[in-house]
Predict the 3D structure of the following.
Amino acid sequence: MRRIGLTGGIGSGKSTVATMLVGLGASLIDTDALARSLASPGGAAMPAIAAAFGAEMVAADGGLDRDRMRALAFADPQAKRKLESILHPLIGQECERQAAAASGALIVFDVPLLVESRRWRAIVDRVLVVDASEAIQMQRVVARSGWKPEAVQAVIAQQASRPLRRAAADAVIYNENLTLAQLEDEVRALWRLWTGNSSTSTGRPH
């Protein structure tokens, strides 16, 4: 099975593309979902998180106090790296476990910080980037989540730049002004390319 690393900035439409690929028959491994599970009540990462950051980072239910940790990670890069050093090996182990059990022509690893972590390039066969301008990203996130624009901008600033993300890509879907039907056409074209039919691609692979 071919391994596809799927990434994109917040509000780019990456999750929509992931859902479309699953609809075509791909197996999806969502690293964000794995991270949430590991840091949930009873999660495998919680003992190490509590030891590294103290009881104040543990919510009343025994899981990670996500709001407090998010604020700390934004303010303190060293704290962010410490959290990642706990989560990333566990996420990697679970990814490989799920990949070994997967079926279908493609395994899609949904990795928001694929470019930033760098190790993923050696793990996947192709990198698919879903791209959109910062203005569109901000508009979408504010509309769907009610976040303030400055909060969205802070997240964008923490992520890889659009040029850096595109430079790491084997294919880019420019999800700027596409309708859902047009986006699905792009996804289907890449599906045909990566599952054996390269004559109808419109997904701008390079």
Notes: Residues 198-206 have pLDDT under 50 and may be disordered. The longest strand covers residues 2-8.
